[in-house]
Amino acid sequence: RKDGYNRLIKIFHQGGKCGFSEPLTFPSPVDLIQYYQKKSLAQYNSKLDIRLLYPVSRYYQHHVIEIDIAAIGEQLRIFQDQYKEKSQEYDHLFKELNQTSQELQSKRTAIEAFSEIIRIFEEECETQERYSKEYIDMFLTLDSSTKNDNRIQNNSEELQSRVEEIHNSKKMLEEELRTKALAHMEVDRKITRLKPDLVQLRKIRDQYLLWLTQQGMRQSQINNWLGVGADEDPYTLEDDTHEEERSWYVGGMRRREAEELLKGRRDGTFLIRDSQTQRGSFACSVVVDGDVKHCVIYRTSTGYGFAEPYNLYSSLRELVLHYRHTSLIQHNQQLNVTLAWPAFSQQSSDSVRR
């Protein structure tokens, strides 16, 4: 038994010797077993880094099951720790990605503002240059002509200097934007590399958890292996209904129909439908403080999201999985809620009956 799966290995026997492969060196299967109780099977196959620890006997089946359960519980603990560590790393990277996205958007907005200011100043410079000669000729007829001439010249030079300063500030900001964009891309690459590990660890962990649950293990013992304290919420198999679009996506359902469907549901119950007002976009309908609220989900070239710079998710499912644990309040002060309960999940249905 390895990583939650059964592995089958043929034992060869010839000329009074046995083994997994040539050369056959063990006098008997007993000698082979005793050897690999102490040594890893990786010597035979690099993918089988495990020892033969727990023999299954028809005479001692009950005893063996207890040992296996304890061993599997310890494996659950190991995979849970690894999963938590990777999850924390992912959360940290995702927070960093959101932060750099906001900074990028802020710098892009500032550069646009600089460009507009530069345009205005340059128009002003052109206007002043066009009419300065006419003003100078007019002031030459006056007694204070020299004074006014100097003032116009000084104003023109000051304006040109100011335009140059703004140009320099814009160039510095553009360089900062390039540097920040490279950092943003690197964080995004790290997240992409981390995702498969996180998914695989969760899958293996849940296989162990499912097996222990099927064996009738008490939740208190499972929580102990998982590192869940007595004052914390008990851990159970993660509800995968968020993964299934059919549990929350309703296609062309209209706003009023969504409100009827969600009426009386617990806070956090939600569905996603095609937007009736913005073609190509979607609408999220969610229960907040007993009322049904609606917000647009945009589909852009960078991904799905509720607003820039958060339109980062590759699919609606990715968006739903993120906001399952993250409040929508960052996009709307009236939406202090998470997408906790898909409208067609069993838990959401139970809440209506209660």
From TrEMBL:
GO molecular function, one term: 1-phosphatidylinositol-3-kinase regulator activity
Domain of life: Eukaryota
A cellular component term, taken from the record's GO annotations: phosphatidylinositol 3-kinase complex
InterPro entries: PI3K_P85_iSH2 (IPR032498), SH2 (IPR000980), SH2_dom_sf (IPR036860)
One Pfam family per UniProt: SH2
Chain ranges of the SH2 domain: 248-343
Name by which UniProt lists this protein: SH2 domain-containing protein
Organism of this sequence: Poecilia formosa
PROSITE patterns to which the protein is assigned, alphabetical: SH2
Keywords: SH2 domain
Transmembrane segments: none
Key word Metal-binding present: no
SMART domains linked to this entry: SH2
Gene Ontology BP term (one): insulin receptor signaling pathway
